[in-house]
Amino acid sequence: MFVYNKNMITKYQRSVFLNSEINTQQGQIQRLNFPSSSFNVSQNEQMQITLSSFHARRNWYNINQTNGIFYVFDPAAPSYTECIIPAGNYMSFDTPAAVGPPAVGASLCEGIVSALVNAGYGAGSTCTYDANTRKLTITPVGFPAGAYIVCFQVKSNNPVGPPIGVSDEGYFNDCCEIFGAKDTRDGWDGITPKNAFEIGGVGPTGAGPYITPFVAQLNTLECIYVLCDLHSGNFQTFGFQKGLPNQSGLTPTQIFARIPIRKAYFDPDDEFVDYQDNNDNFSMFLHQTQLSQVSFSICDDKGRLIPEVAPFQAKEGSLSFKMCIKWRVMLDDLPPSDKKLTPKNIMPQYGNLTLV
């Protein structure tokens, strides 16, 4: 058996500079029309698209409609009361001490108390943060005796739909990650949701206190994912999409690139998300001979568009992103016919060899 190493060489390339401030459709989806006469390949050639750079202003809140909704479940009724942490830029967990520089914005603990009060529970409710254990302690006022806090993260293909009192956004939400708590996921019976603060099979009820089993956090968006509607041949696990079942294995993906975020919250001294790729980390070979129309969008790790601060924010250009992509025409780097590793070419060079 004769083996040769198959490589690709670049015949030529073009840079495409994208600004999504205009011509956005359906939120943050940027649709581009390519002149197919300039972006096509012939037989034995292949197209490759590579991300060169990405740039976006951080014009969204770290606590928002995708991660700030939880519920108080009263099994006696049964009933659900929706609690929404006010959307905003939360830069700390607890109310800072009186000494030191003044606080900028509300703390997460204040936001959680506001959610309880706005839902109709007592103004005496408290929430504190332990900097050592990184856990929250919530002491509510006005909870019914057997009631407890619930966080949902149920995918859209689950046979059990949202109960009465639970919104679609709240039924698949990342609030459990903010709390450091447990969520009710696919496969639940639709009757008894999991106590989000359960530890060892036992969870607090009524007045609590509710101590989070895991560490709390200020943000659930570790990375921005750039999606592209081209058939790239790349794959993903099932956790990246709300509409996919929770199962092991891989499935085809539209993810083009993964852009890391440095801070959990907006910092006026570091307000941009920037990425410069010098090593072709994110590229895809296209199974087509020409480009005519391509769509790009930015999403979180659940396939949701970046949450808007107000309706039409993206359409007005306030959630825009800039990208530079390289379009390349690639050729197989194959040796000439008389240089290939074949019996026909080898035998004349070595007279003592016998073909077996």
The overall average pLDDT, rounded, is 86
The biggest sheet, with number of strands, parallel, antiparallel or mixed sense and barrel status, is:
5 strands, antiparallel
Elements, N to C (H/E): EEEEEEHEEEHHEEEEEEEEEH
E-strand count = 18
Termini, distance in Å?
11 Å
Instruction: Bin the strand percentage.
Output: 25-35%
Rg, please?
27 Å
How large is the count of helical segments? 4
Structural class computed from helices and strand pairing: mainly beta
| Broad shape | elongated
Low-confidence stretches: 1-6, 97-103
Helix content: under 10%
Structure commentary:
The N and C termini lie close together (11 Å). The protein has four helices and 18 strands. The model is unreliable at 1-6 and 97-103 (pLDDT under 50). Helices cover 7% and strands 29% of the residues. It is mainly β. The protein has helices spanning 108-118, 168-171, 175-179, 343-346; strands at residues 8-19, 24-25, 29-33, 45-57, 69-74, 79-84, 126-130, 135-139, 148-150, 210-211, 223-228, 235-236, 251-252, 255-260, 272-276, 283-286, 293-299, 321-332. It is elongated, with a radius of gyration of 27 Å. The strands form five sheets. Strands 1, 4, 15, 16 and 18 form a five-stranded antiparallel β-sheet that branches.
Give me a quick take on this structure:
The chain has four helices and 18 strands.
